[in-house]
Amino acid sequence: MFTCKILPDLKYLLTIASIIYVHDTSDTNLNSMGGALRKWRKRKSKHVSTNQLSLSTPNLSEPQQKVKYRQKHNRKDRFSSASNQHNVTASEPDLRIDNQQIEKGDEEISANSRTDVVINPSNHENIKAGSNRLFIAAIDIGTTYSGYAYSARRDVEKDPSNILCPQWRGDEGLYYKNATAVLFDKQGHFSKFGFEAETYYHEAMEEQDDILTYFFFNDFKMLLYEKKDDLNKEIVITDITGKKMKAIKVFSAAIRYLKEHLLDVLQKSFVRDSNISNTDIHWVLTVPAIWEMKAKQFMRDAAEMAGILADQLSLALEPEAASIYCRKVPMSIKESDLKTLTFLSSGISYVVLDQGGGTLDVTGHQIEEDNFLKEIFPPNGGSWGGNNVNYEFEKYLEEIFTIQVVHQVKQDDPVAYFDTVKQFERKKKSFKPKSDADVVFNVSQAFKEVYEKTHKSDLPSEIRIKHGKMRISASRFKAFFDQSIQSIISHLSEIFKSPKLQNVNVILAVGGFSESEIIIDSIREHFPNMQIVVPKDPGLAVLKGAVLFGLEPLAVKSRISRYTYGIKIDKEILPKEDENYRTLRRDRKSRRFATDVFEKLVEIGEEIKVNEWQPAKEYDPIYKDDQEVKIEFYATEEKDPVHVTDPGCMKLGTLNVDLKERTRSNGALKLEINAGGTEIIAVITDENTGKKFKAKFCLP
Ligand SMILES: Nc1ncnc2c1ncn2[C@@H]1O[C@H](COP(=O)(O)OP(=O)(O)OP(=O)(O)O)[C@@H](O)[C@H]1O
Ligand SMILES: [Mg+2]
Which residue intervals make up region (Disordered) (predicted)? Predict the structure, then answer.
């Protein structure tokens, strides 16, 4: 038997027939439950059938759709919730715009709860992002490297290769991406970013006594992938020495630095007094396609905190951005690949393999007749980016020097540790898999000294360190890549079993890790029938492609829904249906209502056209005299969720609908959603007053 949960303040009744019920304000359960969130019911309309929503539903239950997640040995405990931390420093003033503002347009009002993002009133068709801004700039906060690219709208419209990237001075020359490193002083105030932060921290170690009280963060992006459902704005991360700070502050400092840098460049490079400012720029922030919704929302929040307003920001999925770039800018592809290249022509399907420092992100794309992209296989992958090779090396250090020694070095001399890993990184990038020569690189003396002090003996002879240089055989060095190669190959093998990818014979490998010879050679070896296309600068393809995405957000025409989306309603049911629901109530007329019901709007696996709105659905408020309804939007990986409280259901946000100006009780609330972009846009039209209410939710 189910438990019948009685709802208290139900001022609205659900209608599920084509009859509009007369509102019954004498509900027996009126006073026994709280919360305005249940004031929402589905209206069954003569004109709008719920069946209209059941579009094609490709089978997504294939095993390869489930992303496996491998916890890295040395990441454990790096990220923890603020609730059990004491060492959180004061955060910067929160620049977040209060989203509770109500914007009045001619006929429309946008209203949202604080958790939601308000968008400007606009026509449905107008989902072209930032179409009125002079510049488009993309910011890519990478696990290892970060940067921005930009273009004047007019220039990039004329020529998609017309995208600029600043150059950053690193330890070995100039780079188009900067290091993802943020330094805060001991008070927690932002100090430096990128290579500059690394160098400063390193050099200050010699002479600045208090440098260990500074906060130095690198390799923090993976937090957003690893924390998944536990992610929130209070979460803290530890710096290189274990000091804690709110993660959102670190992310937003990185975004703010890049944003301010571009503004500075623009102000200096254009005619004086041209007054180019933040509002002239539409910003695009890149995110891995495999990230969960909360992670994407976290990046939005970090961007807002960095002074980028919600309506001047789009999120671009990293593999999509790279895919768009390689297609629109053929000169990004090596000539050798172009000769045999077929993947630029319409009708061709290919897999985009985005291999960055943190994640491996795989998506299937098809080029449509009209040259737009269609997603044929949804994003999937895992934490198998290039940094795993570094983690294998760090494990090796623990093996040879012992965990105790490595921890001691990290704690006492973090720069020495960091430098050694950096030295390794250089060798990793230039490693030639066919060479038999030993790999030799600098290793800090600190390891030797701490070892000898701790063990009261010399280093064992198998550790080949001489004059501060470590020597590793080519075969051992190769072994650092084994785990990555295995993960990538086995994941791709699984994916290629899918019937949806049977026509694919091209892999477009992007992301910095695709520069690795050993990785690309291994993929070629395992998939001899595939053409592996690597652009000339695979790391930059994501960043530059994000600018093109900002210019043309509809370049990807359709996507496969990764979630089932819906809203919370009360639904009238027949007595025999009781058993299907966990929470029920009954009104005075003994009508039965299932409560907290997940009303499905889009189903997982459905193909959704990016600029198309789902057929409208109509609902009635449960009580005619209520001043407002709060419509809660949910997502889940279940195909047929029953209640919004089912395990795995995630609340996306709430759209508040103001009913104060309603003059009569009738007139439905018409709900339309557009879920094919990188965000969901929901519009409620109050047919009584003609007012529209909109909200934008970040898509998982
Ligand atoms: N020639 C190379 N050989 C091997 N690895 C390389 C090479 N060039 C770059 N990498 C690796 O690629 C990764 C960086 O790539 P990229 O800049 O695309 O990543 P990211 O943007 O920092 O990470 P993510 O996109 O996953 O957040 C690093 O792990 C780096 O060591
Ligand atoms: Mg990247």
Answer: 47-99
